[in-house]
Write a structure and sequence with these properties.
The relative contact order is 0.07. A hairpin with a 5-residue loop joins β3 and β4. The protein is of the alpha/beta class. α11 packs parallel to α13, α14 crosses α16 and α18 crosses α19. It has a 5-stranded antiparallel sheet. It folds into 4 domains: 113 residues, PAS domain (Beta-Lactamase, 2-Layer Sandwich), CATH 3.30.450.20; 201 residues, Rossmann fold; 90 residues, Helicase, Ruva Protein, domain 3 (Orthogonal Bundle), CATH 1.10.8; 50 residues, Arc Repressor Mutant, subunit A (Orthogonal Bundle).
């Protein structure tokens, strides 16, 4: 590679967020980018031609992932490495390291490194803050970090109202709870309400999203660490200990690696944990509530959820239906959010015009309650008084309203309105009849042939049949 191309190649790799370090067979640096230099606390020029053990004197032939790959010729994937640079700075990385070949002969090794130090510091600060907060809490609100109670769940949907009544009963138990439903339906609101109504309400409520952290970091956050478990590790409690006496909410459980799910199962069975690097068992008194935005059967089929863990958690199980299946709740929540933002933004919005009301009923609301709230917030930032209309929708939604063109008059025709209501009523009957056309026809008191004709006429989706 001539000097011009080498300069161009160096410019390209300097734009990457991950560290790149390439050494020859002697362990001397051939290529080193700025991202690597940043988290190694070095300058790119300091590594030019330098041996890896000179730049990072705490490493040895045995502990250096690059030298290990040169020695064995085998790839290492996602291996943690802790070391000190020549300036005395402590560094932690997670490395994927592989041999480099040219014309069938090994010529060196390359490493892609992610800075683990920052993530670990953040996790330790999080646990410190939670531990401090636990000591300072003196009343229910401080102890539980709870924002929501059952009255905060706004619904007139019969199914969801029944779920709430069952959840109130489950609050009196210490058994695990499993909640699932699409993103944005209000799972954390539901879970917090269970904790607030429980005998643990004056104890900690700790929430952890399992998808937000890599496996090794999630492991240490949940179970804590013991001094000496890794270089620089100190004795630190994990969330199971911090939440002891209260509730630990594990969101997006399907994102937790299966090996870690096995450890969670043991905690549920034995009611004790062992910190990483320790052989000492510590008893914990914590109620586990888990949530997912996937159907648990589908998650088990995809090997994202251990069946034994699911059956252990599934003592109390709650499914929260999407907003599109709760048409009446759309109007209830719309009015609730309008009142909320009228107070917050000092507006005088009176509601929706008829055309926008119909659009809201037919819109799929894939983001559920969260999407509805943010849609109304968007519109009310631009409208001060009167009723919201189609023209006030966010740009991403306006094109969908073209299937409901505005008529000259201020409301839809009676014919269009009745057609819409008939279609919705048929869909409801089909859902109640679990897709059986004969049962739905009986519920509607019409001949089966008539119902089949209307299903075809209105192009009612197969998932209702």
């Amino acid at each position: 590679m001539n000097s011009d191309w080498q300069s161009i190649f160096q410019t390209i790799i300097n734009q990457l967020d991950e560290g790149i370090h390439v050494v020859d067979l002697e362990g001397r640096t051939v290529l080193y980018n700025e991202a690597a230099a940043n988290h190694d606390g070095m300058q790119v020029g300091e590594l030019a031609g330098a041996h890896i053990l000179e730049a990072f004197p705490s490493l040895t032939v045995d502990t250096s992932t690059l030298l290990h790959v040169i020695e064995t010729g085998k790839t290492l994937k996602d291996v943690p490495q802790s070391y000190v640079n020549v300036h005395g700075k402590w560094i932690e990385t997670v490395n994927t390291t592989f041999p480099l070949y040219h014309e069938g002969k090994m010529v060196g090794a390359a490493e892609i490194a992610k800075d683990f130090s920052k993530l670990r510091r953040m996790s330790e600060q999080l646990i410190e803050l939670q531990d401090i907060a636990k000591q300072k809490r003196k009343n229910k609100e401080e102890n539980s970090s709870i924002k929501y109670n059952f009255p905060d769940i706004k619904t007139i949907d019969p199914y969801l109202m029944k779920q709430i009544q069952l959840a109130k009963k489950s609050a009196l138990s210490d058994s695990p709870v499993f909640v699932y439903g699409e993103s944005g339906v209000g799972k954390e609101l539901f879970v917090q309400s269970i904790h607030a109504a429980s005998l643990r309400s004056q104890q900690p409520f700790i929430a952890q999203n399992c998808a937000s952290l890599p496996e090794s970091l999630l492991d240490s956050i949940l179970f804590g660490t013991s001094k000496g478990s890794y270089t620089g590790a100190i004795d630190r409690p994990g969330l199971f200990e911090v939440a002891s006496g209260g509730t630990l909410f594990l969101d997006e459980l399907h994102a937790m690696p299966l090996e870690l799910q096995a450890k969670l199962l043991r905690v549920l069975e034995e009611k004790e944990i062992r910190r990483i690097g320790s052989t000492k068992s510590i008893p914990v008194d914590v109620r586990i509530i888990a949530a997912m935005n996937l159907d648990p059967q589908m998650a088990m089929e995809k090997k994202q959820l251990r069946p034994d863990l699911f059956y252990r958690l599934n003592v109390f199980s709650f499914y929260l239906p999407p907003l599109r299946k709760r048409i009446k709740d759309i109007h209830l929540l719309t009015n609730h959010f309008i009142d909320h933002f009228n107070d917050l933004l000092k507006k005088r919005i009176e509601g929706l015009d008829p055309h926008l009301r119909m659009f809201f009923e037919e819109y799929p609301w894939n983001g559920n309650v969260r999407e509805l709230k943010h849609t109304i917030e968007f519109m009310m930032n631009f409208v001060d008084v009167g009723k919201l209309s189609i023209e006030d929708l966010p740009p991403t939604m306006i094109h969908l309203s073209e299937q409901h063109p505005l008529p000259d008059q201020s409301m839809p025709s009676l014919k269009d309105y009745l057609v819409l209501k008939e279609k919705q009523f048929i869909e409801k009957a089909l859902r109640k009849g679990k897709g059986n056309v004969s049962k739905a026809a009986s519920l509607l008191s019409i001949p089966r042939q008539t119902l089949q004709y209307k299903i075809k006429k209105y192009s009612i989706a197969d998932d209702n049949c």
